[in-house]
Each structure stands twice: as structure tokens, then as C-alpha cells.
């Protein structure tokens, strides 16, 4: 049986990574030319890894299901990327970033990994600036920062509301240099459908060419999975429509443990769902909470009148508004972490104070900020006794410069002007902290199989702080994996090319072809989406923002039933040897239907509330999450044994030597 070894180096936390780098085995440049690495996924994590590994001299084969790395889901990232540069001189440091991240994750992450993340964060910004990423700059031309939830400093670097897109362009240009040199062979429109193990080591993958339908074998000395998160298990989420868990789930079935699947982030500021035919939710970046104030009516009659469309929010007097985050969490106010803000919104809506027809929305209001900025601008411009109209105009211009594209997006979707009327927002599934278990080297429990970016479980514990996903993905790809993978590959310099005409590749390929043929020939009565929506509904209602034992047990049973129905009645039109989007979805939903069950099982196992995992049975007197450090200060790493219901739990006990384990408070 595989046992967990996190391989965290000995020594003081501040020295671990430095000493590791100084002592790690290196591969001589001439030998790197004889070593192949497969990188599956070319979002920010995989793209940065592919570019860096190729720059080092390895032969990289990179895979993505989109038509270009530029279309990875990372492009959607809006608000920014954290780094402990302390450019604002407001007291930031590596230790503080480390501390905020461990505390933000409700003390369920591995200290050594998080400290390393904080240590390399500054280098990411330097790297990206050198690539030409146009981070926002202040009046004097220096890099600007803003704040995100759960911190008391400004350490978030940003490019308007398009940070992910700009970072991805930088990363893609670094990849393109290597593609042009022939060091990266790029396989766009290819989907990895399984990993191939030889003598216990990951030695290749089976992929489908999504244009021709051809099944291909690819070999390498190591395989890196960078395929993003599994938030779409909920059907509706802020993730890209194609985001999926297939690669992560397939490697889980081949021996990679899956860690903390129940730790999922529900983001507080999303545009509320509008109806049953919706296929996607839209995020309004957390950066908006720098200036937006969140409120609901304080009086029930006002809430009812708003829900019935009889009252406008602008007609509600200041004293009749409940700025509930400022009221409950005076120290952090509107910038409490996401799990706290989401639960607080749900609490107000459940109590009947929601502000749209469904009662599932709260306001995000910019009126105070517009007034504040407008007055400041009037002073700067020397306008005496500026009228309210002038102040508003000047203030709106400042808000537009900071968040213009987000306001435009909101207006296009909701058909309401958020400069004049507060935005309506509600929590939605956004990010998955859980994922494939990895050790300090970012290696899974399968030799030679690595996992980076959102696909792995590391660093964020039970709740991710805003602007930390981009930091982690780029840390993994640019600065961590290029060191750690060498330690493994140093033993492979004499191995030579890995052949693909072996029984291991034959078997993996046959299994995939059989499954694809099954889908095409099944001729059932329901579309893939029919089953995906059913799964999503169970996940949201019973494994969503608040969970309890009864609902979790029901969810497990219901997911099993939907899965059984899926395999009997799914209908996939079209053919095998052509572009067939329904066929792609069928495979992904089949995997979600298994992952969803493990997710609920993990939530049922964790008899505590922590971060995004909120169990209604474990709550403090004032409604906050009640952790159980004595019994649950561990990473739950699940081993696949044939069915999700039979997965075996392995515990990685978490040690807190550099941060005191205490109740998280933002009051
Ligand atoms: C709307 C939105 C806004 C966000 N804003 C921020 C922000 O401001 N700051 C922040 O830090 N984080 C933000 N996040 C989170 C962050 O964007 C993601 O966590 C991060 O971009 C994930 O990067 P990744 O490289 O791990 O995966 P992704 O960008 O999801 O890339 C996955 C890659 O894997 C490929 N792939 C997947 N499956 C397969 C397969 N089977 N075969 C082949 N290829 C495959 C895809 O083609 C793609 O190339 C945001 C998330 C959302 C949803």
C-alpha cells in the first residue's frame, strides 16, 4: 500500500527551500536533451512549466484541449496576483504573506509549501514584468497594488480587471519562443484521456485528437498534470465551460491520491443566476470589494418591497441599510475572506433580506466610493464648492479607470448601470482548493507523475485567499517544478526513449477506445447535460455552501443513482472520428459523476467546519466555522480502489511550528 511522505526538507522554515535548491541533484545540460517531459495543460501553471522546462533544455510535449494556450481558463482571472514585495511600505513581508495564506486557509495547508510560495512570489512579478506584462502603474510610473480579502496590506499586482489574460500572454510568449526553437512540441485540441504507467512510473499518456478523433500514444520520462480545477462538478460555476477534472481523475484511478476534494471555494461576488436554462455564472472580481460596500435592507418590509420590484435600492436611507460585513467584522469589513463573505450573504438571504426576485442577492454599492473619489478629484483640480453632479462625474471616472471592464461586463449581462444602481451579487462556485495530493516536490503518489496549479491540493488549505491562485500556478511552473523535477530525472539520464508499442500502452488505449465506442453506440434517451445538471443540482443543494450529515448521505446515494442512470441512458450523437463536443463532454461528466461522490464522502468524513467546508453541526455560538484541530488537522488523501465509495483514507498530519494554531478571526 502506498504511504504518504510529504518529503518536506528538514531545518528552519526560512532555510528549507534555499538548502533544498543548493543540494538538489542536477541534470547536466547535455543529458537534458535526451529527456522528454509531457505537460498536460497550458494555462498559467502548465504554460509556465512548459516554457521553463524547455528553456532548461528538456524536450517538452505540451497538450491543451483548446485551439491555443491563449484560451486556457487562466485568461478569465480578473483581479490580480499577490506578491510580498512591500512596495507600499505597509508592513508586508514573506512571513506575513505566509501567515495570511495559512490563516486564510483555516490552518489546513502544509506550512513548508506555503512559506516557499511566499518566498518566490516576488520573483514572479519580476519575471512577468521582464516579459512585458503591463501591470497597472501609479502616477509616478511604479507598479501599483490593491488589497484582496483576508489581508491588511496592499500586495496585489493587477492589470485592470484582466490580470489573467495579461499574465497568460506573457507566459504564451515564453512558450512560443520554445515552440519556435522546437523545444516545445505543442498539441492543441488534444485531450489527455489516461496516463500510462510502466513499472510503477508515469511514462506517457493517451490523448484524443479532438479534430480528427484519432487516439494517440505519447511517451516521456515524466508527466506533469496542470489541468486546472474541478468546480464544474457543480454544473454552474464561474469556471470556463470546458474546465474539467478528467486528467486529475484518471490519474487518481491509476494511483494518485486525491486530497481534500470537499474543499471548494464559493465566491461571494458573482452575478446571481437568472433561471434554469443558464449554463454559466459570471464573477465580479473581488477587487471590487476594495471600493464597493456590501449591504441589504435592514428592514424586512423594505426587503420585501425590493423583491416585489416596488422599491429601488437608491430610495433606501443610509440608516435603513445593513452593511452586515462592516457590522460583523469591523477589522476587515468588506475585505473579509471569501468563505466568510459568502456565508454572511447566505445568512442574510436565508433570513429573508435578499434583494432580487428570488431573494438570492445582496448589493455591492459604489456610491460612497464615487463620492469619496469625486470629492478628492475636485480638490486636486481646485474646484471649489463642487456640485453633487460634478463630484459624481469625477468619482465615476476614477471608478471606471479602476474597474471599467467589470462594470461594462455587469451592465451587458444584467442590463442595469452599476455606476447608478448598486450591483446585485450572490455566491457561486469558483475554485477548488482540493485536488491531486502532491509532496514538497509537487510529485503525486505515482513516481514521475507531477501535478501543479489548481489541479493539485497544495497551499490553500480550506479556503484560498484572492489573487493567490495565479501566484501559486506561476510559482509552481516558473520556480518550483523546474528544480524539483530534476531530482527525479537525474536517475533517468540513461533510460533512452520510452517506447509506445508496449502492452501498457496497448491496454490503456484499448480501454479508452472501448469507452468512447460505448458512448457513441449507447443511444440512450438523455443528453449529457441532462445528467450534468442533475449532478450539479445535488452538489449545490446538499454539498454546497452549507452541509450536514443527513444531506451528505442523501447526496452520496443520489449521485450513485444519477451515475447508474447515466451509464444506461446517456445519448451521445455524432461519430467517433470527427470533432464531437458531446462525446468530449460525456467523458468529462462520467468523471464528475465519480468525483462528486468522493467529494461528498470527504465532506461527510470531516466532522468540523473549516474554510469553505461548512458543516451546519459544527458552528460557534455567533455562527462562525468551528474547527476541530484535535481530530482533523490533517489532509485527507483518498486512494482509489475501484469505486469512490470504497476509497481508502490516508491522513497527512499537519504540523504548525511557525504559526500558532488558533481560531481564525476577522473581527
Ligand atoms: C472568473 C475567474 C476569475 C479569477 N480571478 C483570479 C484572480 O484575479 N487572481 C487569482 O489568483 N486567481 C483567479 N482565479 C483563479 C485562477 O484563474 C485559476 O485558479 C488559475 O488560472 C488556474 O490555472 P491553471 O493553469 O492551474 O489551470 P487552467 O488555466 O484552468 O488551465 C488548464 C489547462 O489544462 C488543459 N486541460 C484540461 N484538461 C485537459 C485534458 N484532459 N487534456 C489536455 N489538456 C487539458 C486546458 O486546455 C488548459 O490549457 C479566477 C478564476 C475564475 C474562474
TrEMBL record:
Chief localization class? Answer: membrane
Identify the GO cellular component terms for this protein: plasma membrane
Q: Which GO terms describe its molecular function?
A: electron transfer activity; flavin adenine dinucleotide binding; succinate dehydrogenase (quinone) activity
Q: Enumerate the spans annotated as Fumarate reductase/succinate dehydrogenase flavoprotein-like C-terminal domain.
A: 532-666
**Which metal ions or organic cofactors does this protein require, according to UniProt?**
FAD
Extract the InterPro entries matched here.
FAD-dep_OxRdtase_2_FAD-bd, FAD/NAD-bd_sf, Fum_R/Succ_DH_flav-like_C_sf, Fum_Rdtase/Succ_DH_flav-like_C, SdhA/FrdA/AprA, Succ_DH/Fum_Rdt_flav_su, Succ_DH/fumarate_Rdtase_cat_sf
Q: Which reaction does it catalyse?
A: a quinone + succinate = fumarate + a quinol
The membrane topology term of the UniProt record is: Peripheral membrane protein
Q: Which keywords appear in this protein's UniProt record, sorted alphabetically?
A: Cell membrane, Electron transport, FAD, Flavoprotein, Membrane, Oxidoreductase, Transport
- Which Gene3D superfamilies would you find in this protein's record? FAD/NAD(P)-binding domain, Fumarate reductase/succinate dehydrogenase flavoprotein-like, C-terminal domain, Succinate dehydrogenase/fumarate reductase flavoprotein, catalytic domain
Q: Which domain of life is it from?
A: Bacteria
Q: Where in the cell is it found?
A: Cell membrane
Q: Which SUPFAM superfamilies match?
A: FAD/NAD(P)-binding domain (SSF51905), Succinate dehydrogenase/fumarate reductase flavoprotein C-terminal domain (SSF46977), Succinate dehydrogenase/fumarate reductase flavoprotein, catalytic domain (SSF56425)
According to its UniProt entry, the protein's GO biological process terms are: anaerobic respiration
Report the EC number(s), separated by commas if there are several. Answer: 1.3.5.1
Primary enzyme class: oxidoreductase
- Please report the stretch or stretches of sequence annotated as the FAD-dependent oxidoreductase 2 FAD-binding domain: 36-470
Quote the catalytic residue positions: 338
Q: Which residues form a coiled coil?
A: none
Q: Which family does it belong to?
A: Belongs to the FAD-dependent oxidoreductase 2 family. FRD/SDH subfamily.
Q: Which PANTHER family match?
A: SUCCINATE DEHYDROGENASE 2 FLAVOPROTEIN SUBUNIT, SUCCINATE DEHYDROGENASE FLAVOPROTEIN SUBUNIT
> What is the protein's given name?
succinate dehydrogenase
Amino acid at each position: 500500500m502506498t504511504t504518504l511522505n510529504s518529503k518536506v526538507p528538514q531545518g528552519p522554515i526560512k532555510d528549507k527551500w534555499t538548502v533544498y535548491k543548493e543540494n538538489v541533484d542536477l541534470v547536466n545540460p547535455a543529458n537534458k536533451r535526451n529527456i522528454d517531459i509531457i505537460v498536460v495543460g497550458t494555462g498559467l501553471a502548465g504554460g509556465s512549466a512548459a516554457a521553463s522546462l524547455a528553456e532548461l533544455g528538456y524536450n517538452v510535449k505540451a497538450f491543451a484541449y483548446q485551439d491555443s494556450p491563449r484560451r486556457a481558463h487562466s485568461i478569465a482571472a480578473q483581479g490580480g496576483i499577490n506578491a510580498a514585495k512591500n512596495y507600499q511600505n505597509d508592513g508586508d513581508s514573506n512571513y506575513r504573506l505566509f501567515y495570511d495564506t495559512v490563516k486564510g486557509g483555516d490552518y489546513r495547508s502544509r506550512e513548508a509549501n506555503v512559506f516557499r510560495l511566499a518566498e518566490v512570489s516576488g520573483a514572479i512579478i519580476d519575471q512577468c514584468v521582464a516579459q512585458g506584462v503591463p501591470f497597472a502603474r501609479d502616477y509616478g510610473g511604479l507598479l501599483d497594488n490593491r488589497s484582496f480579502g483576508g489581508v491588511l496590506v496592499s500586495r496585489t499586482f493587477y492589470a485592470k480587471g484582466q490580470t489573467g489574460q495579461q499574465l497568460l500572454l506573457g507566459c504564451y510568449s515564453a512558450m512560443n519562443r520554445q515552440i519556435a526553437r522546437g523545444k516545445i512540441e505543442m498539441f492543441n485540441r488534444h485531450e489527455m484521456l489516461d496516463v500510462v504507467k510502466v513499472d510503477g512510473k508515469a511514462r506517457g499518456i493517451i490523448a484524443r485528437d479532438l479534430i480528427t478523433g484519432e487516439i494517440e500514444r505519447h511517451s516521456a520520462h515524466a508527466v506533469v498534470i496542470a489541468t486546472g480545477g474541478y468546480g464544474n462538478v457543480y454544473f454552474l460555476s464561474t469556471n470556463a465551460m470546458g474546465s474539467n477534472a478528467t486528467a486529475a481523475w484518471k490519474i487518481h484511478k491509476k494511483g494518485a491520491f486525491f486530497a481534500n476534494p470537499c474543499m471548494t471555494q464559493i465566491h461571494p461576488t458573482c452575478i446571481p443566476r437568472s433561471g434554469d436554462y443558464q449554463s454559466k455564472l459570471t464573477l465580479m472580481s473581488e477587487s471590487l470589494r476594495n471600493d464597493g460596500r456590501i449591504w441589504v435592507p435592514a428592514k424586512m418590509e423594505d426587503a420585501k418591497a425590493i423583491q416585489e420590484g416596488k422599491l429601488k435600492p437608491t430610495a433606501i436611507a443610509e440608516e435603513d441599510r445593513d452593511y452586515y460585513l462592516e457590522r460583523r467584522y469591523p477589522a476587515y469589513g468588506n475585505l473579509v475572506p471569501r468563505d466568510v463573505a459568502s456565508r454572511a450573504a447566505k445568512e442574510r438571504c436565508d433570513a429573508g433580506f435578499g434583494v432580487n426576485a428570488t431573494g438570492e442577492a445582496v448589493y455591492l454599492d459604489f456610491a460612497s466610493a464615487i463620492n469619496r473619489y469625486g470629492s478628492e478629484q475636485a480638490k486636486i483640480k481646485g474646484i471649489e464648492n463642487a456640485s453633487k453632479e460634478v463630484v459624481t462625474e469625477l468619482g465615476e471616472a476614477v471608478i471606471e479607470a479602476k474597474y471599467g471592464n467589470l462594470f461594462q461586463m455587469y451592465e451587458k449581462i444584467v442590463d442595469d448601470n452599476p455606476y447608478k444602481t448598486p450591483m446585485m451579487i450572490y455566491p457561486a462556485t469558483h475554485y477548488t482548493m482540493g485536488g491531486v495530493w502532491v509532496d514538497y516536490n509537487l510529485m503525486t503518489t505515482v513516481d514521475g507523475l507531477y501535478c501543479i496549479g489548481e489541479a493539485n491540493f497544495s497551499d490553500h488549505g480550506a479556503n484560498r485567499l484572492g489573487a493567490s491562485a495565479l501566484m501559486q500556478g506561476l510559482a509552481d511552473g516558473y520556480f518550483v517544478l523546474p528544480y524539483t523535477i530534476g531530482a527525479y530525472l537525474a536517475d533517468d539520464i540513461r533510460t533512452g526513449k520510452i517506447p509506445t508499442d508496449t502492452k501498457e500502452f496497448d491496454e490503456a488505449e484499448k480501454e479508452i477506445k472501448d469507452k468512447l465506442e460505448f458512448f457513441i453506440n449507447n443511444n440512450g434517451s438523455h443528453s449529457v447535460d441532462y445528467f450534468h445538471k442533475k449532478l450539479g443540482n445535488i452538489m449545490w443543494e446538499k454539498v454546497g455552501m452549507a452541509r450536514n450529515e443527513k444531506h451528505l448521505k442523501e447526496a452520496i446515494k443520489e449521485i450513485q443513482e444519477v451515475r447508474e442512470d447515466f451509464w444506461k441512458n446517456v445519448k451521445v450523437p455524432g461519430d467517433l472520428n470527427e470533432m464531437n463536443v458531446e462525446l468530449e463532454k460525456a467523458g468529462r461528466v462520467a468523471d464528475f459523476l465519480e468525483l462528486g461522490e468522493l467529494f461528498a464522502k470527504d465532506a461527510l468524513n470531516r466532522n468540523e467546519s473549516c474554510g469553505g467546508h461548512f458543516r451546519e453541526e459544527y458552528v460557534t455560538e455567533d455562527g462562525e466555522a468551528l474547527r476541530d484541530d484535535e481530530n482533523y488537522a490533517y489532509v485527507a488523501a483518498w486512494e482509489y480502489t475501484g469505486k469512490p465509495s470504497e476509497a481508502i483514507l490516508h491522513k497527512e498530519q499537519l504540523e504548525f511550528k511557525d504559526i500558532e494554531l488558533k481560531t481564525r478571526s476577522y473581527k
